[in-house]
Write a structure and sequence with these properties.
Shape of chain A: elongated
Structural class of chain A: alpha/beta
Largest sheet of chain B: 9 strands, mixed
Strand content of chain A: 25-35%
CATH topology of chain B: Rossmann fold
Helix content of chain A: 25-40%
Strand order of the largest sheet of chain B: 11-10-9-12-8-1-6-7-13
Radius of gyration of chain B: 21 Å
CATH class of chain B: Alpha Beta
Oligomer: heterodimer
Number of strands of chain B: 15
Helix content of chain B: 25-40%
CATH superfamily of the largest domain in chain A: HUPs
Largest sheet of chain A: 7 strands, parallel
């Protein structure tokens, strides 16, 4: 009985979450005295997974799966789990993985805990800690079914190297027409270089910027940091920025390493959406802005003075490092 | 088209989060409960189908009698009738099984659920309903059009959008985008008056084998105070981010 992970790739390269899942799986495998198998769909070179402790890769190559399909991919993962007699299946929290996870859970009659923030607290009974109440609390969930599925919360574990001897095997699960009830007609990519979902650093700005014409410095700051740009809900509602940049409770969740909030006061709904970010920096003219209460670092100052200085200093810093 | 809109009864975001009973239960004392925000977008979109295409809307909640005011609010917004499955929503799979039963019994064409609820953040109910029934399922739905049984929709993906086509019967995991925030329907006087006379049926739950259980809750560790850096000393911020926080 092995642990099965779904190692996601995009354009033939593994996503960082795949390495995070592998690291997490390896740690549990060591505790339980078992191995880690990764199921991979249409990926190029799978050898990189051996750096993170994966023992076996089930390689699926199928033209029908060239675009993402939650039902078809969940069918692949289900068959991989059955083939490996996997009792623990690990998935990430990318948009695609959270889409297919409940389908896998139902098809395997497996208990599923999503948004899990660390290694299992115990394996017998099997208990995990997960985010709840919009990042204001945790709950400890026990999974009692024979097969268990964990959805690892974004940026909650880390990537750890562990060399392994990787064996690979071609895997041909049965895919039927009924797996493609959802047909993708077209895909439109966002304009930013880095998507909020994949970004390690997010630079976000709010009404304090006073108008959309002032966003140049935000985009420049993001560029220097290799960050994604984001905005508060009022800014999105005012159409100052694309709605896809809205982060917060009803916008996108952010669990970046660094979240920089400029001219955002810190409404509870905004904080709820970004609170899983590791380090929060707040720049605001108002020392009473609620955001300072949850920030790690802050500058009380005018964004129009602070941000240009920050850009200049960061460029110098990057040049030296 | 018969639409079923799933409504979660959740604490308002500004609520203080506390736990009782040795941290095994959420403390509802003094807490205001509301319709889950993701569900509100779905409900308003359903109202659009009702007004434009003559669809009917049933709202459903799995919960005890304390959730009925939230269901009545959904009726006041414009749903035709409501169903409450009389059971504690112990986990996502349990809730999905109850709703799947309601879907089967009522032969609904379109099921609109919120992608994730504010309280347990499970994000699994819409997908599980679809898995149980074998219906088409679209998550992260930010646009939805139905013509007969043909569906055109948009899914929000990491870094962009995907335009998809599918067919009824369909379950969607909805969110903001289905309608804009400014277009959210709120109850008006007439809605509130008629809500009182609309049908709210209570049904008993079906048996479900439990496979997960929330055993305990924990509040976040208290946060240490912010380290303020002078606007004249940006170098210090960069130093802290690089050497202390190690994020740049």
């Amino acid at each position: 009985m092995s642990i099965l992970i779904y190692a996601e790739s995009a354009e033939g390269k593994f996503k960082k979450v795949a390495f995070e899942l592998a690291s997490y799986a390896k740690k549990i495998a060591e505790t339980l005295g078992t191995t880690v198998t990764a199921v991979v769909i249409n990926s190029g070179d799978i050898s990189e997974l051996s750096k993170y402790g994966v023992d076996k890769v089930l390689k699926v190559a199928n033209d029908k799966l060239s675009g993402f399909s939650a039902k078809a991919y969940s069918d692949v993962i289900k068959q991989a789990a059955q083939k490996e007699n996997a009792k623990l299946i690990l998935l990430s929290s990318t948009t695609d993985s959270i889409y297919l996870a409940p389908l896998v859970a139902v098809s395997l009659e497996a208990g599923f805990a999503s948004n899990v923030v660390g290694l299992p607290l115990s394996t017998s009974p099997f208990q995990v800690k997960r985010n709840a109440f919009s990042n204001k609390a945790f709950n400890i969930t026990e999974i009692s079914s024979d097969i268990k599925i964990i959805g690892l919360a974004k940026n909650s574990y880390g990537i750890f190297e562990s060399a392994s001897n990787l064996s690979e095997e071609d895997f041909n699960p049965t895919i039927g027409d009924n797996d493609f009830g959802i047909q993708v007609e077209s895909i439109e990519k966002g304009s930013g270089k880095v998507s909020i979902a994949d970004a390690d650093i997010v630079v976000s700005a709010g009404r304090g910027l006073k108008g959309p014409e002032n966003w140049g410095m935000i985009e420049e700051l993001a560029e220097v940091l290799g960050a994604a740009t984001a905005c508060s809900k009022p800014v999105s509602d005012l159409d100052w920025r694309p709605h896809s940049e809205h982060v917060g409770q009803t916008g996108k969740p952010v669990a970046a390493n660094l979240y920089v909030a400029i001219g955002i006061s810190g409404a509870i709904q905004h904080i709820a959406g970004i609170n899983s970010s590791k380090v929060k920096v707040v720049v605001n003219t108002d020392p009473e802005a609620p955001f300072f209460k949850v920030a790690d670092y802050g500058i009380v100052g005018d964004a129009f003075e602070v941000v240009p200085k920050l850009i200049e200093k960061l460029k110098a810093f990057k040049a030296q490092n | 088209m018969k639409i079923l809109v799933c409504i979660s009864h959740v604490p308002d975001t500004t609520s203080k989060i506390n736990f009782t009973n040795s941290d095994s239960q959420f403390d509802t004392n003094g807490v205001q409960f509301v319709i889950n925000p993701n569900d509100e977008f779905g409900l308003t979109r359903a109202i659009w189908f009702q007004e434009q295409q003559g669809a009917t809307i049933t709202v459903v909640n799995v919960g005890g009698a304390e959730t009925e005011p939230t269901l009545r609010k959904a009726l006041a917004i414009g749903a035709n009738d409501a169903i409450r499955v009389n059971a504690n929503p112990t986990d996502g799979f349990f809730v999905a099984k109850q709703i799947a039963e309601v879907v089967k019994n009522g032969a609904y064409d379109l099921v609109i659920a919120g992608k994730e609820s504010l309280d347990y953040n499970g994000g699994m109910v819409p997908g599980m309903i679809a898995g149980i029934l074998g219906y088409n399922f679209l998550n992260s739905c930010i646009d939805l059009k139905v013509d007969g049984t043909t569906v055109k929709a948009i899914r929000e993906i990491d870094g962009g959008k995907e335009t998809i086509s599918t067919a009824l019967p369909l379950i969607i995991g909805g969110q903001k985008g289905l309608v804009e925030e400014k277009d959210l329907r709120i109850p008006n006087m007439r809605g509130i008056m008629t809500a009182r006379t609309k049908t709210l049926t209570v049904v008993e739950p079906i048996d479900v084998a439990i496979n997960t259980k929330a055993v305990k809750f924990e509040k976040l560790a208290p946060k240490s105070a912010v380290k303020l850096v002078s606007a004249d000393n940006i170098d210090e911020l960069i130093n802290l981010l690089h050497n202390e926080a190690k994020v740049i």
